[in-house]
Automatic annotation (TrEMBL):
Pfam families: FGGY_C (PF02782), FGGY_N (PF00370)
Superkingdom of the organism of origin: Bacteria
Molecular function per GO: ATP binding; D-ribulokinase activity; ribulokinase activity
Residue span, Carbohydrate kinase FGGY N-terminal domain: 4-276
Signal sequence, start to end: none
Protein's UniProt name: Ribulokinase
CDD domains to which the protein is assigned, alphabetical: ASKHA_NBD_FGGY_L-RBK
Length: 554
């Protein structure tokens, strides 16, 4: 019998199951299920309209996707149920779901089907900006000791502001919910029948500390007296580290998935974080950057340090035995997509159609002989707000330097360069905190498809760069953690770190910086930092004023 692990990767629009042979590392089969409800940004299924900045989902899509994709990869490849030795799962985060004690989502209760706050609040739900601001003011005033390790600022994308938003605007949902959970933990609960919380999700998105636990009752009471006992009443469950086993597959779920009862199920990990083991990283000094709709920058280390504007420092949060550090950018692939969908002329569209290539490929080709700085353009990568280092989602993108000779491909390149400048700022923040970045690996579909982007990152950051050798690194990482959840006598892996080193995949090619471009990009980066300070730190709040005017006129 062969030995397989299944990685289940929950993304923003779909879920993917990946079947991996843990003896050979072969990615045997994958199956994708697109959520029927997608991302609900304008209205919920009843037709009720949503405010600007909202992003909800229906949890039924998650369950159906789990069953459909796993059954597909197992049955299509005629895998015997006993050959699957472990299951791992990653999920977008902080994606928050209110549920009853019997696991029923509150939005599935008849009395709440027309209440938006009862649905899943997706990671990019930005309806809780005011709540994040209020919570941050309390944390700063109280000098909460956990705040510096999360970049010194509470993000509206994290768990508590989303829960507080529900309490303030739909208190009946808050009261009805026996639990507020990360959606990934909820799926693990569905599979194992055991309620646990992932140290990854709790650590990065709910300020859980391995020694001190969650923030204190006093903090929550200072925010709102109704939240004083939120941990005991709504959150309390065993915390499991990444690389640990969360439980075993129940008989009922095994039947529906076409698997064997009792298969070990690994603790959930955040989707971006799963790419780190997928890239074969199991030790400190190596930064992994997953470049997707947004970007996440991660490293392992042996000490607990605070990084300005980071998303947290969590023990056993990415791989066992180390602290995991996370930073990020809110808009990367999203603003490349925005540009090609809204700003490319019909002549370019027609040329791409005739040649049978994508607009991204066409623009990259037109830039093949381009020299850094030749366009005179400079952009800020804030089209969806800023994570690291400012942690401010009320900021906007900017492109400057355009004239009547500016070409579409030059604007496209300026957006890529902007994300590279943002990444360089993050790298410098890590090193200022005492974490040497010895090695960089890019993950995700974008760097695999776009070598021009990889070269720009190498030139801007003046670093050698490697690229993952899998189009589904998060699913691969989840499968690796699934294998690690099984006993060593079955898999041969002592721990998740060892499994990652054997099963993770990186291309042989190494991208090296072009020193002529490096010199120019150093100049442009200084100008980027000037704009970053001017528009991002309160010297000029024009972006926020424009946002306020827009909201008033809607």
């Amino acid at each position: 019998m062969s030995k397989y692990a299944i990685g289940i990767d929950y993304g923003t629009l779909s879920v993917r199951a990946l079947l991996v042979n843990i003896e050979t590392g072969e990615e045997v089969a994958a199956s994708i299920y697109e959520y029927p409800h997608g991302v609900m940004e304008e209205h919920i299924p009843t037709g009720k309209k949503l405010p600007v900045g909202w992003a909800l989902q229906d949890p039924q899509d998650y369950l159906e996707g789990l069953l459909v994709t796993v059954r597909d990869v197992v049955s299509r490849n005629k895998i015997l149920p006993g050959e699957v030795v472990g299951i791992g799962l990653d999920f977008t985060s902080s994606t928050v779901i209110p549920v009853k004690a019997d696991k029923t989502p509150v939005c599935h209760l008849p009395e709440f089907k027309d209440e938006p706050h009862a649905y899943v609040k997706l990671w990019k739900h930005h309806g809780a900006e005011e709540e994040a601001k209020l919570m941050n003011e309390v944390a700063v005033a109280r000098n909460e000791e956990w705040l510096p390790t999360y970049g010194g600022k509470i993000s509206s994308e994290w768990m508590y502001p989303k829960i507080y938003e529900t309490l303030r605007h739909a208190p009946e949902v808050y009261e009805a919910a026996d639990r507020f959970m990360e959606a990934g933990d909820w799926i693990i609960w569905q599979m194992t029948g055991v309620e646990t919380r992932s140290a990854c999700c709790a650590g990065y998105k709910a300020y859980y500390h391995h020694e001190n636990g969650y923030p204190s009752k006093e903090f929550f009471k200072a925010v709102d007296p109704r939240m004083e006992n939120i941990v005991a009443d709504k959150l309390d469950a065993p915390i499991k580290g990444v690389g640990e086993k969360a439980g075993h597959l129940t008989a009922s779920m095994a039947r529906e998935m076409g698997l064997m009862e009792g298969i070990p199920v690994a603790t959930c990990i955040i989707d971006a974080h799963a790419s780190l083991p997928g890239c074969g990283i199991g030790e400190p000094g190596k930064m992994m950057i997953i470049v997707g709709t947004s970007s996440v920058h991660m490293m392992l280390g042996e000490k607990e340090v605070a990084i300005k504007g980071s998303s947290g420092t969590v023990k056993d949060g990415i791989m066992p035995g180390y602290f995991g550090y996370e930073a990020g950018q809110s808009c990367v692939g999203d603003h490349f997509a925005w540009f090609v969908e809204n700003c490319v002329p019909e002549s370019y569209e027609q040329e791409a159609r005739v040649r049978g290539i994508s607009i991204h490929q066409l623009l990259s080709e037109k830039l093949s002989t381009y020299k850094a700085g030749a366009s005179g353009l400079l952009a800020l990568d804030w089209f969806n707000g800023v994570r690291t280092p400012l942690m401010d989602f009320n900021l906007n993108g900017l492109i400057m330097g355009m004239n009547l000779l500016t070409k579409p491909e030059e604007i496209y390149l300026s957006l890529i360069e902007a994300t590279a400048y943002g990444t360089r700022m993050i790298i410098e923040g890590f090193e200022e905190a005492g974490l040497e970045v010895k090695d960089i690996t890019l993950s995700g579909g974008i760097p695999i498809k776009n070598e021009m982007l990889v070269q720009v990152y190498s030139d801007v950051c003046n670093r050698k760069i490697k690229v993952v050798d899998s189009t589904q690194s998060s699913a691969l990482g989840a499968a690796i953690l699934g294998a690690a959840a099984a006993p060593e006598r079955i898999t041969g892996f002592k721990n998740a770190n060892e499994a990652a080193k054997k099963l993770g995949k990186v291309k042989d090619k190494v991208w090296e910086p072009n020193q002529d471009n490096v010199e120019i990009y150093n100049e442009l980066y200084e100008e980027y930092k000037t704009l970053h300070t001017y528009f991002g730190t309160g010297i000029n709040d024009v972006m926020k004023h424009l946002n306020n005017i827009r909201e008033r006129r809607k």
